[in-house]
Amino acid sequence: MKVSISHQEGMKFEAKTEKSSFVIDCPTISPVEYFLAGIITCSATDIVLLPKNQGFTVTDLVVDGDATRAEDHPRKFVKLHLDYSFNSDGDDIQAARWVAASVETYCSTLNTIRDTTEISYSVKHNGKMIRENEKVISGGGSKIDLGEIDACCS
Questions:
Q1: Percent of residues in the chain assigned helix, strand, coil, to nearest 5
Q2: pTM of the model
Q3: Domain range holding 90?
Q4: Is residue 15 part of a domain?
């Protein structure tokens, strides 16, 4: 994956990808807001595609994200909560599994921040809250010390 950023004027930058281009207009929308929007969009695409691949349809999808950043620089995300709300022709268990699969496995942007960010989520499916403040298994906000691991000599 390649991206090229070029300064346009003032605080506007053009991002060119292998497929398209778009303008990043700082400070109207900061790069951190674009990053958070990308994280949320990554997961949202999973919530549309996973059911579709199983013969189900998702409608009215809204994913709200609330991120807390560290006070000190580089001001990384320390907490992220995602609220998923959607309707589908699947049942509540399937809906919960689609979200869990996205946040635990498929969403590469969430996986990029999970070692340093405490991630949680809630799911409202067909108007009913089915999961509330679930913690992402490995999104503990810090690296896990597994101790000494024996390995073969190299």
A1: 30, 40, 30
A2: 0.85
A3: 30-140
A4: no
